[in-house]
Amino acid sequence: MIDASPKKLALITGGTSGIGFGIACKLAPKYDLALSFASNTEKANHAKIELQKQFPNVKVEIFQQPLNDYNDAKNLYDIVKSHFQKPPLILVNSAGKLRDQIFLGSNFQDHQNLIQEHLVIPMALSHLCLKAMNVAKYGRIINMSSISARFAKRGQTNYAAAKAGLEGFTKTLALEVAHRGITVNAIAPGLIDTPMTQEFVKKVEADNNGNIRSKIPVGRVGRPEEVGALVEFLCGNNSSYITGQVHTIDGGRSLGDPLS
Ligand SMILES: NC(=O)c1ccc[n+]([C@@H]2O[C@H](COP(=O)([O-])OP(=O)(O)OC[C@H]3O[C@@H](n4cnc5c(N)ncnc54)[C@H](OP(=O)(O)O)[C@@H]3O)[C@@H](O)[C@H]2O)c1
């Protein structure tokens, strides 16, 4: 079967929930979508149905593939390519969960698992996707980092290490592939309202008695579709001169007002 759609294919890991789904909603009018997830089939089905409802012309498929090592990444890449009969030329690495714990006395296996999910998997998928991007002389790789890569938070040694590593990977890979029309960027969100942060968002809003502005200057938590809008811009032709950057999207949280 030969793919008849002229649209480029975007692979979004973790595309069925939170930030990944916000990105899918913004890319849906222009791109075919492959959304991966780990285990929550009900949520994934709901994401697919919602996209088809909002964008009747979208070609979207969901793929259940827990991503823990290179073979998992390869399985996902192969099945996506075979389903759509074309390789993804846009890769958004958004999958992953938190495993916060104070380092002293922690379970070391949890640290290794988190580094695999948040750093090794994005590297593996980039490696797999780059060959076709190189041939196409077009590619977009967008890695979801976090302001936690630069701002310490107790319990997040593993997460900070993985995200800082991801930013280093982003810059160096960008340098290597820029001449092939491939851009590689990272996004560093602050607090975005998603299933992953639901409890923390409630706590921040309650702790501040409505005065959330003391922590986040714009005065509110971010929305997944706001990250999606930035990704949409980074995928388009108007962003072809932007590569190797970390784009912070945090409502001013990292500006560090010393009086607050
Ligand atoms: N939310 C924030 O405030 C925030 C801030 C900075 C950075 N980030 C980053 O943004 C990304 C998305 O976070 P989110 O808040 O949108 O989370 P989320 O709503 O919990 O969504 C996570 C997605 O990743 C999938 N996933 C999780 N672990 C996986 C694994 N091992 N293999 C394959 N898929 C896996 C989940 O699948 P299932 O639903 O099947 O589990 C789900 O689709 C993460 O990289 C996170 O570090 C988030």
List the SSEs and their pairings:
Elements: E1 9-13, H1 18-27, E2 32-37, H2 41-54, E3 60-64, H3 70-84, E4 90-93, H4 108-136, E5 139-144, H5 157-177, E6 182-189, H6 198-207, H7 224-235, E7 246-249
Parallel strand pairs: 1-2, 1-4, 2-3, 4-5, 5-6, 6-7
The structure holds NADP nicotinamide-adenine-dinucleotide phosphate.
The site of NADP nicotinamide-adenine-dinucleotide phosphate has 28 residues, from helix 1.
What does this structure look like?
- This protein has helices at 18-27, 41-54, 70-84, 108-136, 157-177, 198-207, 224-235, and strands at residues 9-13, 32-37, 60-64, 90-93, 139-144, 182-189, 246-249.
- Helix 5 links the parallel strand 5 (139-144) and strand 6.
- The mean pLDDT is 95.
- Helices cover 43% and strands 15% of the residues.
- Helix 1 (18-27) packs across helix 7.
- The chain starts with 8 loop residues before the first strand and ends in an 11-residue tail after the last strand.
- It is α/β, with parallel strands linked by helices.
- It has a seven-stranded parallel beta sheet with strand order 3-2-1-4-5-6-7, with helices on both faces.
- It has seven helices and seven strands.
- Bound molecules: NADP nicotinamide-adenine-dinucleotide phosphate (NAP).
- The site of NADP nicotinamide-adenine-dinucleotide phosphate (NAP) has 28 residues, from helix 1.
